[in-house]
Write a structure and sequence with these properties.
Elements (H helix, E strand, L loop, with lengths): L3 E3 L9 E3 L9 E7 L8 E7 L6 E10 L2 H7 L16 E8 L11 E4 L2 E3 L5 H4 L10 E2 L19 E5 L4 E2 L6 H4 L5 H11 L7 E5 L3 H12 L3 E6 L5 H7 L3 E4 L3 H5 L5 E6 L7 H5 L2 E9 L12 H6 L2 E4 L5 H14 L5 E4 L3 H12 L6 E5 L6
Parallel strand pairs: 12-13, 12-15, 13-14, 15-16, 16-17, 18-19
Antiparallel strand pairs: 1-2, 3-4, 5-6, 5-10, 5-19, 6-7, 7-11, 8-9
Helix pairs in contact: 4-5, 4-10
The structure holds NADP nicotinamide-adenine-dinucleotide phosphate and zinc ion (ZN) (2 copies).
Amino acid sequence: ISFLLRSTTDNKADSTVVSNVVTHADPIASKGFAVDSSTSPFKLFEFERRVPKADDVFIRIHYCGICHSDIHQAKNEWHNSRYPMIPGHEITGVVEQVGSSVKKFRVGDNVGIGCMVDSCLSCNSCKKDLEQHCPDTCYSYNSTELDKVTPTYGGYSNFITVKEHFVCKIPKNLPLDAAAPLLCAGITTYSPLRQYNVGKNTRLGVIGLGGLGHMAVKFGVAMGAHVTVISTSESKRDDATKLGAKSFLVSKDEEQLKSVKDSFDFILDSVSAPHDVAGMISLLKFNGVYCIVGAPPKPLEIPSILFITKRVIFTGSLIGGMKETQEMLDFCGKHGITCDIEKMEASPETLQVAYERTLKSDVKYRFVLDMLNSFK
Ligand code: NAP
Ligand code: ZN
Ligand code: ZN
């Protein structure tokens, strides 16, 4: 284990000297895989990461999950894409250098970075640990730093420099590869379940058994809920059962849906493409909650009568704040929860295959890129 020696003669913020580890002094030459437009393939992209400032942590990226949001953004489906874009916001890695005021981390720590890399830290949302609702949130990619100019680049890359506040500790018992998707798929499903007190008496419906959906099942089961998976794919029935779901319904089968009408307390909709949300709302009990986390590009069409007659609450949820993300990771450490992954090295070719297969829901249940071995 490398130990940390602080130089006492040099008063520069990032004067950390570490045995066997090079201390970076200049902007750090970095590599990633980027797209140049909504239709272009991935290409190798060289750029620079900043040297850690006093409150920054410099991380060697080991793994990065492929979230469906990466695909929406790479393809400009949300109409806000900036190029060149290096996607990736399910990042795990190891700390290589820390700024002088960093308290939480030491060189060699296993860490994670999710969708955010900065925010104002002073607005009402930030003060309530809801940095994701800050008007100035800086996302990990397809975004800028707080200066509104410097582009951010995501985790399909070898290094990243991030403000300490936006870095999480990965519990020691969790492997860095299968933990990576916790940083988005994990927190995005954990947060709404916690917010609506999902627990022992909850009949929970999870729509879509993908990256987010399979984590929602694991969390729902760990929290004691009665979990039903509603999927388009009959072939996922056995997996749903293995994940701990008590029942499984095929959404295209009207008879199966009829059998669970008016039965759910809470539905989490994680579907990435346009689908029949109105039909799903009718599965809720009186006063039931429908929480949508999936973000298909097209607007929803829902008859108002569905809300009126059963006083249904329709809501959404956006990732989770930094405090809750750490809470989720600690919960995963305690319960031994990780993601089911398919690991691959990143290259323009493998990324294309991974995107195509994710679009076909042909992945169990998250692709994770081995960034450590992708630039050899
Ligand atoms: P994913 O792994 O591709 O899973 C999506 C699942 O949706 C698929 O596995 C499939 O499940 C189902 N599905 C796909 N096409 C469908 C269709 N036409 N009709 C019905 N069901 C369909 O995607 P993900 O990474 O979990 O992300 C899901 C969505 O959440 C994306 O839109 C993403 O952008 C969004 N997201 C939101 C947040 C947030 O903060 N709110 C965070 C992360 C991601 P079955 O095979 O079981 O039907
Ligand atoms: Zn994501
Ligand atoms: Zn703020």
